[in-house]
Amino acid sequence: MKRRDFIKSAFALSAFGTQIPVMALGRKNRAGRRVQWETDRIVILIKLNGGNDGLNTVIPIQDNIYYNNRPTLAIPQNQALTIDDENAFHPSLSAFQALYQSGNMSLIHGIGYPQGNLSHFRSSDIWVTGSDANEYLQTGWIGRLLEQEYPDFPSNAPDHPLAIQFNSANLLEFKTSESNTGMMVFDPETMYYIINGQYVAGQNDPAPDTYGGEELDFVREVDLLSFEYAEVINETAGHGSNSVEYPNSNLGYQLALTAQMISGGLETPIYRIYQHGYDTHADQENYHAQLLMDLNNSILAFMEDLANQGLMDKVMIVTTSEFGRRYFENGSFGTDHGTSAPCMVFGNNVVPEMFGEQPSLTNLDQFENLHIQYDFRQLYSSIITDWFGLDQSIATTVFNQGFETIPFVQTPLSVKNPPLPAKFKMHSAYPNPFNPTTTLSYTLPSNESVTIRLLNLRGRVLKTHRLGVQKAGKHLFKLDGRSLSSGTYIAQMEAAGSILHQKITLLK
Amino acid sequence: MSGLPLSRREFLKGGQASRPDLDRLNPNWPTKRAAKRIRTYLEKKPPIYHPPKVDEIPPILPVTHSTQSLRNIDWNMGAAKHLLCRTMFGPKYPEIKAASENPVQIAVSSLFNTIDMPEPPGEWVNEPAPQWDALTEDEIDALIEQYNEWMWDLGYWWMKNMMRNSVNIWEMITLFWHNFFATAQSKVFFPQAMYQQNNVFRQYGLGNFKELLRQVTFGPAMMIWLDIHASKHEEPNENFARELLELFTMGVDNYTQDDIVEASRAFTGYVTNGVDTNYNFEEGTGFGWWWNEWHDFGPKTFLGQTGNFNGDDIIDIIMEQDATAVHICTRLYKWFVYENVDETVVNEMADVLRNNDYNISNALYFLFNSEHFYDENFRGADIQNPVTLMQGLIRKCGMEDFDFSLQYFIHSQEFLGMLPLEPPDVSGWPGYRSWINSITLPVRKLQASSVISGDSPWGQFDIGADVRELAQSMYDPDEEGYASEQIVKKLGFLFFGNPLSENLEGRMLSVLLDGAEPYDWSINAPENDPQWNRMRDLMIYIMRVPEFQLA
User: Fold this and answer.
1) CB-based contact (8 Å) between B437 and chain A?
2) Helix A141-149 crosses helix A3-12 at what angle (to 10 degrees)?
3) B279: buried, middle or exposed (CB in 10 Å: 19+, 13-18, 0-12)?
4) Tell me, what's the ipTM?
5) Which of A21-35, A302-316, B315-329, B461-475 shows the lowest mean pLDDT across its residues?
6) Which of A229, A232, A223, A234 is nearest to A188 (CA)?
7) pTM higher than 0.80
8) Which one of A48, A137, A138, A194 makes the best mutation probe of the B interface by having the most chain B beta carbons within 10 Å?
9) Of residues A50, A184, A200, nearest to B545 (C-beta)
């Protein structure tokens, strides 16, 4: 039985009824389809819109190049909030520092994609479609993810929205080849009142087979779904509550309402929330500090609220942004569009570590931009497989290629534990080429003693790492190339009586 | 549950997330002190709502690529409605009928007839820029209030022009260029500058594109909007150069980052006080102290050519590029035809544009005379933008000379996501399907039906359309069938882009008759006859069905 079929039959009889008068709409009654996958986990994606300045969010406190190139904007070491020897948070992010220390946050450096595009419009599209830099997709990554579970959406839609996006969202992220899986939300009560009052029911003739007909179908679809979902959103938001005060900001409002809907039992697994204003070309200092302060306070309130209500275990919060900014400030006391930036992940089930490291400010691309350390699709793949416990093949279908996950989920759900390989297996290093570190990954068939060596092309051993006995399953090893010069090397792994090799290239 | 009227605050409290209007202000202009006051002023106001972006395009359907002139046989009421709905605001039934009775060439060419420029919204359009340093803070605040008032006078003036347009393309092309060179008042600040730019669209909008581009580029509004006036020799600002290439002329992928940097060096030394600039249109050069001090007179290499270029030289080089005409025609096509661009047709339009010295009206004339434009596929394929929807509806209902409150338009257009003078960013309104989502669709219905019911989310008003007059303006005693049936058909024709389906026609008729027989409804019933209430119900019904959103 296919997974999808299993879900259909498993929930077919659980009459999860809402009060939607579906019969009156001339539409087949649905057998109470639920939204969730095998898990009730929820992800809250927050877009820092405009391109967040990563270097002033997680500050490279040891990097003189950073300080020399940002005479007015650099955050002095003594004001930054220490994370470790090399990293510190912006002074606005005191809650993040505490959350990181208490094990409720992980930090991923250098997220972006190869050949970063510096146009807001284009780069945002790349992020929401999950495409390569030179690939133009018409569907969103979330749309393609949900489409695999609900291929006939919206004709056989579940009772709760599949995804909720707050106003000012980019609908493309939720677009499938056939429809749009996202539901736009603002004030639920007003929304319900207006939508309900303006809806006209009645049998529709099929739309003509023209572009005019295509657009009519589109408007009809929005019309019907908004009518249906307005009620369930209004209901859950009405049942739910907030246990803390939120900042009086739009981000605070969005998160408060999200918490209210989750608390009221809305099953929607994906929320997309927006915080605008990060395009800090001019007079960045105060604006950026205010934005981060709002982000810090809003996320803290949200986590406290859900924790008070016993709901925090099933929620993870992830920040994204279309790009980072240049490492040097411009003539207007701001920073211009750049490439990669750190992403922040919050929750009770995250690995409280830093993945990747402060980007090098000497080794830059041809446009003086930072190199990336992780592809943003690795971040999204980790959400799909580790957080939602969906099969790797689903993520591969979404992105049309496989991406190594980033192990920031503390308790990855593995619905189907991938069968252990019969033999010791080595996966592709990422990134490769790299500078200065890359991550080697491998899977052990049983508990084995592992040794990793770095050789030059003539076979001379340059470094040896004896890792001792490790458990069966997948492991990661971070290889540091800082003491090496540019060139191609061989990573050699020895375990379970076999030796495997892989070429890796260091580009300084 | 809350009842009517809904306050704007209620609507907006979850609506708008950002303050890009604040983020993009220049803190040093017109002076540091004034900039601070302007910012404080804007901060106190709720942010402008902009609908989210959406980028979806339906699958390609078979469409005729023929750009031959339309054969007379295809020219009928439906085609005439299609032409007028795309080129003007709210064509009325008799106007459509009149157009259909002329040959297509005449109907098209009369759209391009020159019309008088509208009277300016007020004396203030000639108000010189203030001497900021001579003003106290209170005086600055008062001036900001005054400018804001004038700015919305301008917005109202413009929307009135739209709904009072004649059977002519000038108003529509003005809005098209505002979307193309999208400039927002909240950053420009000077209503004089916005008015001046609006006038440029009216004066040059159907003529030579290069002249239009020059007039827009070196006008005070664009200089402020994209920071041309803050760009100097040592620190060129890339903002304008990037958008010039990406959005105004060549389109992405036709130039490099180096070209942007070099072009931005050429656009240095042009400054404005908000009303006047240091640019001489006749000689094509900047002048005066700022020009001498700030302009980069050194050699630049742009798109493979090297020279001591200034802004005009860059525009000259851009206009030599084939991509420019293609980009302009793509934008025209998307506005006047459909989101799914037919490359064959656009390339032919671009040829026409190039061969006619970049005269915009030639390209449009060519398009509106082509069989392609009238392909059945495009009927009803236009998701109407909120301005065309509302201003057009008011005109169709014969209410264009009514006095609406300024608030009525400003609030409704803001909420529906298309407040003229305040596009979300320089790429203009994303348009197309982004106009419709689960928030805007119900409000579009509610707002539209306010012209009949008098209930709008922005409060009630005591005027309504004269439905009797509307019915009588459409009625033809020589046509077969009962008046009720004829009116239903004609309302469906006038208000829907797609052909009226039998089913919907039946539902509409039953709303109009409300249990009575078709012959009970009389076109000559007196004004106070309750049957006109049924027609008001029908009008509201029309505005609530999805078909109403499309033209």
Assistant:
1) yes
2) 60
3) buried
4) 0.90
5) A21-35
6) A234
7) no
8) A194
9) A200
